[in-house]
Known about the structure:
A hairpin with a 2-residue loop joins β4 and β5. 18% of the residues are buried. The chain has one domain: Nuclear Transport Factor 2, Chain: A, CATH 3.10.450.50. The chain is of the alpha+beta class. The protein has a six-stranded mixed sheet with strand order 2-1-6-5-4-3. The protein is built from four helices and six strands; from the N terminus they run ααββαββββα.
Amino acid sequence: MNISVAASFLFCTVQLYGQGISAAQSADESQIRTNRRASNAAIAAHDTSRISQYWSRDILVLTSRNVQNIGKRQNAVAFANEFKSKQDVIYVRSPDKVDLFSQAGMASENGTWIGRWKNGAEQVEVTGTYYAKWIKSGGQWLIRAEVYTPLTCVGDTYCKTFHR
């Protein structure tokens, strides 16, 4: 076999192999983004059981107020409390980037989030960035961890409660 034929074969093999990985990663990223949209819709509906479908049983969440929730149950209770205590509350997470390590069944998601609700007559809006770690379990992508960092807060009374 001459060198140019071997090089062409090697190039085609690498190209085809790379496309296979790319297609799998594309499907995984699409599933993660679809799950995020569905999670946002469940939050908008104030449906804690539907939201929790996208969490691993041992999910770890560090909220924008530095509250740590560990496990599905504790995180579901925290959401239920938010829905009861904050009028018209909604949280939307918008992914900017999803990076995959499909071989290990892990992915990271980075993006921005916004939370809005009424505090009496006052409208509150908090925005920031977030990081989520996803794991693939039983063929399903689930959130293993989330960390939220606030960057802006509008709503004088509520925003004054942030402290160092």
